[in-house]
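Notes to self after the call with IL:
- keep both proteins in one doc
- input above output, always
- annotate only the second one for now

Protein 1:
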Amino acid sequence: MEQITIRVKDKKKAQTLLDFLKSLDFIESVSEKEVSAEKTSSGDGENDFFSMAGFWSGRDITLQSIREQAWPYRA
């Protein structure tokens, strides 16, 4: 069994697509999940960026140490 996820911008067109898919005999099930606009939009990306400020504070992390852990055979 295969599963396909489709994001549709227009709610009316999404309903039309769902009705069409339900009419096909080889479609086992059709489910609908509404996604809020806040999760999909990236309009306020600056706040998202600064929400992680201080996340690594107090930890001795360098670019070199990350590379050594990620690719120990290359170091």
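Protein 2 (the one to annotate):
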Amino acid sequence: MRKYYFFLAVLFASCVTKPSNQNPQLLLISFDGFRADYLSKTDTPNFDRLIEDGVTAEGLIPIFPTKTFPNHYAIVTGLYPENNGLVGNNMYDPEMDARYTMSDRSAVENPDWYLGEPIWNTVEKAGKKAGSMFWVGSEAPIQNMRPTHWKTYDGRMPDEDRIDTVLTWMTRDKDPVDFGTVYFSFVDSRGHRYGPDSDEVVKAIQKADSLVGYLIDELTKLDPESKINIMIVSDHGMSEVSTGRKIVLDEYIDPGDINIISYSPALMFNAVNDNEEELYNALKSSENHYKVYRKSDIPDRYHLKNSHRVPEFLMVAEDGYTINTLEYFERRGQDYPNGGAHGFDNNNKKMDGLFIAHGPAFNNGIKMERFENIHLYGVMAKILKIKPAPNDGNPESVKKMLR
């Protein structure tokens, strides 16, 4: 009789226990502009909690140019810029005869700009659900699709609310989301304004750590048995810039002869007159703290030149230098440039982003060498047990992180 009552008690308990999602789940988090070595600038107890039982890397190598939009989209497609369509934060497409800028809502929401297949589409095609609390590309109906849940970007939305929203999606009893994203911009903003070595950036790092603590605590409250995998990344790092490190175009060419498409430190431009050779020779003969390339000569390692959206010329500034016209520098004032910038050569370790991963899919206590962010798309597909779309990554090269 006692065994019978014990059986009933167990049966009753199983009936009232909150159901959990049996499918693997993954939450992708981006702290924009969080340089790989920022964790050494201050105490980060919550990041450390994840690292201790998870995976980290010496650096997450961004694609070139080391800008926000190209790299966020590379992470979720596994594609280099010449294949994912986003060759810069600012672009011109001669076939579309259209410009793309981050502030142009009609461009940001136009799927024609985005090539490849973002991970949320791969998830949805596999019969699973995705939810994006802000990510580059998630506002556009790429392949005539969107995630099940998505939000138009609103930088005023409180950071805790972003976490609350995506955790609600992922822990609800009915139709929980299998893949979610969350994005935060404040580390990048502080780095631009004050520089990567400033007290303000240290405060931003501490704020990011506090948000990670909030995430862990809330996830524990919502679902104590949660087995959600967490992947924390950033798109790029940050370098110090200063007024003493300027490359003034007027000293080499007539700025009126060029049409600037994408800005420093990876300056891309077309010639407006039929004088391409003259422009190139003038800049090439004066190379100092920069490199200049014809489109056809752009280094293969940039994976950039095989796109019709890349202009005729590329100038890449040396670390810490800013390229622009004299008129632009004078208009910005004598204190410009200052603070921080990114967009430099992706071989530069100051451009490396953050990588931390934690959860049942990941190994414990692993520190990896630097690796390219394009490999993460395949890793995410593997964790979620879905077939990846064609991409440039090789998840086998980073399989050490997975159980």
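Annotation: DSSP finds twelve helices and 20 strands in the chain. The radius of gyration is 23 Å.
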